[in-house]
Design goal:
Blueprint (H helix, E strand, L loop, with lengths): L1 H33 L5 E10 L5 E12 L3 E3 L1 H11 L2 H21 L6 E5 L9 H13 L6 E5 L1 H4 L3 H13 L3 E7 L7 H6 L3 E4 L1 H6 L4 H16 L3 E4 L5 H9 L4 E2 L10 H15 L1
Parallel strand pairs: 2-4, 4-5, 5-6, 6-7, 7-8, 8-9
Antiparallel strand pairs: 1-2, 1-9, 2-3
Helix pairs in contact: 1-2, 3-4, 4-6
The structure holds ligand C2E and magnesium ion (3 copies).
The site of one magnesium ion has 5 residues, from strand 6.
Organism: Marinobacter lacisalsi
Subcellular location: Membrane
Protein name: EAL domain-containing protein
Amino acid sequence: QAKASGKNCYHFYNREMNLKANQRLDLELDLRQALELNQLKLYYQPIVNARNLALVGCEVLLRWDHPDRGLVSPAQFIPIAEETGLIVPIGEWVLKQACLQAQAWRSAGCDLTFISVNISANQLRGRSLVDLVRTALDDSGLDPGVLELELTEGSLLPNPLVARDVLDEIREMGVRLVADDFGTGYSSLSYLKIFRFDKIKIDLQFVRDMLDDAGDAAIAKATIAMAHAFQAKVVAEGVETQEQVDELIACGCDQLQGYLFARPEPADPFQQRLRKRIGSEH
Ligand code: C2E
Ligand code: MG
Ligand code: MG
Ligand code: MG
């Protein structure tokens, strides 16, 4: 009997695996055409100054508007894009598009201090990121000081020496570098020294639980103190409650990002937000 059920289990497991693999293959085939078919969209999530809660910048977050599936989350398709190498043309499009959009807003008189773009591991394989950043800045006319690149440990540590050279060159252009999802990996403190980030993002998992979990609160506080010791700014992501805001401000956090302020939104509503800002200041 045990044998029979074992066999069934195996059978079931196999079918599940096939289903998953097929779904993945479907997504992969669709993703190959997503760029050409204009299904990829940039969303923008506001980031505010912790001192006065004024809008200062935004993070660019990719969305896939799939004809049958609706909006597909980047958590679902970025890993596929990375494994297939599709992230290279997609990432190129994201960076160029983001720079054009930021420059359009600034030319229209909107006061946007920075725009932050996520960079994946594959984009750091060779030296091509340097050329891509230069082209995106040249083509758009965007002030390099407005552009920030978000990097995770996972993208820097496989080949830290190459990554450091590439990032040093990009920093020399005047672009700022941000450590994303900080605290979730295994990096040592020398990670901060080697890559000389201008800004560090406290991962949302620590922000979420910092009021109930002493360990998460300690990580958030230590991250802020450490970032400041390295002359870096700190942004907390995933801020959803006023209590979190109060605690983060008390700890000296510089910038805040999260659903409490706004969800990621398309270019038009974000531009409305920037315009309202101009009005409220005069
Ligand atoms: P990330 O870079 O850490 O982005 C932050 C994520 O937290 C975003 O998820 C954002 O929508 C979400 N978030 C912001 N505020 C809150 C909040 O208050 N509560 C909660 N629960 N979540 C919040 P999203 O947009 O689903 O993106 C997921 C991940 O996909 C990103 O994590 C990033 O790693 C990746 N990603 C997104 N766009 C791009 C892109 O253009 N290129 C690359 N390489 N990766 C991207
Ligand atoms: Mg990010
Ligand atoms: Mg993050
Ligand atoms: Mg994340």
